[in-house]
Amino acid sequence: MAVARSELRTLIGRVDNDNAPDSLPVRPAVPVRPPRVRPDALELEYDNILTRLEPETGILWAWMRHPERACFTPGLMADGRHFQEWLRATFGGRRREEMPFRHLVWASRATSAWSLGGDLATFTRLIRAADEAGLRAYAYRSIDVLHDNYQALDLPIMTVALVQGDAIGGGFEAMLTNDLVVAERSARFGLPEILFDLFPGMGAYSLLRRRVGERTARTLIEDGKTRSADELLELGLVDIVCDPGEGEAVLRRHLAERAHRFGVDLTLKRVRRRSDPLGRSELIDIVDLWVEQALCLGEASLRRMDCLARHQERRRAGR
Predict the structure, then answer these.
(1) How far, rounded to the nearest angstrom, does the alpha carbon of residue 96 sit from its chain's CA centroid?
(2) Which domain holds residue 242?
(3) 100: in domain
């Protein structure tokens, strides 16, 4: 079920009862278990990510499994970072014609959720503990993962978000780092951080300003509204909208139709990046401001975050 604006406001408005999630341990910065790897199929199986090569389409699928919560948990981030580094080590320096895949496609195994953003249960626990180092470590790791995806790992490939469920908060930000976004019409998108006195700090402003200009970027960040896939299509933040259940087929068809111009598409992406580069240092400076603001949040704001953290948990895979 999609998250409507009214539902978000209802969820974060519940400050009269104890919504705080149980204390959660900090997951390590590396995968809990090394992935099972079948190199010939580019098949890596992590706790939080499953990948598979589809040679006939040139797609390397990467499914976020969301076993804990439908968000960027420390475990998902550790697995994602390991996967990125594995790809760079395996394929770095190869020419376009030497790559076994053209498109890295990010999808989700959670029911009706692509990603509901940053791990709010971890955020509230770290903020209440005044653990600035822990919060900053999570934020910096987010920037590393998102910026590398934005740069396509410096490989001659295109990155794709196949959004078959809601992309909220950090999920919206992560979606924006991809070269192509295909969204099913039932998906919803939003940046709710302003509703609990924070702002989306993992790249939203930098990415949106480059795509839609300063005025629209500020509106999307400051109004806290949830928007439809068709609304984002009009803004140019989603490239293709299709009916529910048709995302994979529509993506395959689109890539097949544009296969003959992959080289020029790749070059035009490089032109866009060169004309208005987004450096990691810009993202780090902004996320430092996010950490500063997060550590100033009062208990009322944290309890609103707790409510959405519960929602993230309910939307994990299989729920």
Answers:
(1) 26
(2) 5-314
(3) yes
Residue 319 lies in a domain: no
- How many C-beta atoms lie closer than 10 Å to residue 88's C-beta? 14
Convert the pLDDT of each residue in 127-183 to its tens digit. Answer: 999 999 999 999 999 999 999 999 999 999 999 999 999 999 999 999 999 999 999
Q: Looking at the chain, how many residues does it have? A: 319
Distances in Å between the Cα of 46 and the Cα atoms of 73, 94, 159, 245, 315 are: 14, 25, 20, 25, 20
d(CA 223, CA 193): 10
Residue type, 210: R
Tell me which amino acid residue 128 is. Answer: R
Provide CB contacts within 8 A for 153, sequence distance 6+. Answer: 84, 87, 88, 92
Tokens 């409510």 belong to residue: 307
Q: Per residue in 52-94, pLDDT tens?
A: 999 999 999 999 999 999 999 999 999 999 999 999 999 999 9
In this structure, what CATH number is given to the domain that contains residue 116?
Answer: 3.90.226.10
| Number of domains, the chain | 1
Of 171, 191, 194, nearest in space to 181 by CA = 171
Over the Cα atoms of the chain, what is R_g? 19
